[in-house]
Every structure is written in structure tokens, then in C-alpha cells.
């Protein structure tokens, strides 16, 4: 084996990263168990959770299952790499006599299929086992199969186009390809803001515009209070797959839209829905979409710079027995090295998102009052069995939204400050 020190560093990086995040997950479960028991009265009074055993069970089981899948995936990856499967695949593709770009497209397509096949048993157990036990799953086996095949087809198309384009850049622009690939990422991200809600999402769900009735009146009321003209608001038939609640904002310009899950509409009172809608509108008003986009672009710029250095690193190819001409295989190995770096820099991206979510909550409180948003958050936590008390270290790496107790506490403090200001006739209390 050539470059044993490189192999040691590679394995330590992958295994060490997984061990670190598994330790965080264990710490998170233990922390949540303690705080859920300690705050049982608060959970009952604020969130309406009288029996928190189900919350315990769901959190423990989903965490354990996720970690099991991650460790099995890592083991399979290392076996594939060190049993010579990568070298064999490259040799097979090279023997076809196709160009490096076409070899790479075939290689990436094979990776997509292999990844999907690996994850399929876990998806089945998660959907028809865990989610079924906790009454979240609404999917039929036929719908699950359709979604799986449709996702695979879309992934193959995007992989062929984007992967092929990057390989063309590597061939045509040996030193500048990371810049070209980064620009492709930026353009693709912008296009997806339009393409996803208009083309891709409707392949999986039906989207009905909110046009008349009590909900439409409530929507127009929120827009008027927020100072907007009423725009595209849709309900999505999320109940076909899960009973969990959610809403999201996507797009820009004339393509922007707010999407409310039908489960959210059916489970929440009108004031709560208005609070959620006001929160989503804040992401539009405060330009959070563009700020998040800029942050992501900067982060990916660093990633492509690192990939450029690693793809040109000859010992990486020699260590795994592949020719330097197989840049597609080098790209895979480089991505495996950069992946952990992305995981450890997640707190930087999360910090920006956390700031935006707090701003959106504050905006919702200003527009509709704090109480509807507090009630909505309580409903989300209860219906989704969300862990209300993550460990601070775990939250730093995994949470793009503040924990619900923190969000409720900030909203309550805002409401108290508003009431105090009203009692004082709008005057600011003097400092001693």
C-alpha cells in the first residue's frame, strides 16, 4: 500500500468525524431526557404534552436509527474503497474507450443508483416502521415506490448534467475549473429557486392556491398588516405522506410563494396560521433568502477551492490505485475529504439562519402579536414530537432554527416589554 500515512489520515478523518457526531447525538439524547423530565410541568402547561414518554421514545429511536445508518454507510464505503472496488470500476470504465467526461457521467450515475439502493431499506424501515408506529406515516407502498423512482430519475438527470459540466471544466480549464464550477453552482441555485416550486415540487405534490373563504380572508389580513400586496399562497397535500406540520417560503421576484402544508391548515386555529404566515413573510421582507444565498455561495466557494487543490493532488490517485486521468474518481475522493470539513463549519451557516429565524419571529410578533406565534410554535412541537431541549453543542452543529422553548421565551419577553411600554404610555423607563 502506497502512502500509508495518507490512508491513515483519510480513515481517521472519516471515522473520527462520525465518532464525534455520534458522541454529540448520544449527549443530545441524554441531555433531552434529563430536561424533559425536569420540565414536565412546562411541557404540559405550554405545549400540552401530558405524557412525555412518547417524546422520549421518538427522539431516542430516530437518533439511534440515524446513527446506525451512518455507521453502516461508513463501513460499506471503507470496504468498497479498500477492497479495490473503486480501482475496478475505474478500470472497467477506462476499458470502454469513452472520453473521460462520459466515463465520469457513467461513474456518477452509478454512484447515485448505488446510494439509492443502499438507503432504500433504511427508508422503508423509517417510513413503514418508525413513522408508522408514531402515527406520522400516511404513505402507501405504491406512493413510496413512485416517489423513490421519481427521485432517482431526477437525481440522475441533475447528476449527468452537473457532473458532466464539472468534468468538462476540469478538462478545458485545468487551473480555473473551481471558479467555473462555483459559478455553475451559483447559477444552478438561482435556477432552482424558480424550477423547484414550478416544476419539481408539483411532480410530488398538488399545490392549490388559497383563493376564497376564511383562510383567504386571514391571509389577506396578514398581508395588509405586514404592508404587502397579497401574493401567491398555496396549500400542499402533505397529508398524503405524513401528518407532520410545516410551511416554507421559496423563490424570488414574480416566482416567490408561501406554501402551507394542509396538515398545518387542518391542525391550527386561524390566529396561529396567521402567526406562521407572518413569520414566513419576514423572510421575504428582511431579504433572508438573498442573505442565505450569499452565505451559501461564499461557503461553496471555499469548498470548490479545496476540491481544486485535492483533485490536482497526485498522491491521492496513487494511494487508491487509480490513474490521474480518472478525474471523476479523484473528485469523489476529494469530496469525501471535504465533506467532514463542511460538517465542522455547519455552525457558521447555522448562526446566520438562527439570526434570521429570530428576526422572523419578532416580525410575526409585531404584525400579529406574540400570542398567536407562541401558540403556533407549541402546536408544531406537540404535533411533530420535536425535541424541545437539544444539547447546546448538538444544536450548534445541527439546528438552523432556535429550539422552541427559546423562541417562546423570546416572544414572551417581547410581549411583556410591549405591555410594559403600553402601561407607561409608550415612555421608556429611566435607568437608575
TrEMBL record:
Co-factor note (free text): Binds 1 zinc ion per subunit.
Transmembrane feature ranges: 6-29, 71-93, 105-128, 149-170, 176-196, 293-313, 325-349
Sections of the chain in a coiled coil: none
Protein name as catalogued: M48 family metallopeptidase
Entries under Pfam families matching the protein: Peptidase_M48, Peptidase_M48_N
Record domain Peptidase M48: where: 211-414
Domain CAAX prenyl protease 1 N-terminal: 42-205
Species of provenance: Halohasta litorea
GO molecular function, one term: metal ion binding
Cofactor(s), by name: Zn(2+)
Superkingdom in the source lineage: Archaea
Family named by the database record: Belongs to the peptidase M48 family.
GO terms classed as biological process: proteolysis
PANTHER family in alphabetical order: CAAX PRENYL PROTEASE 1
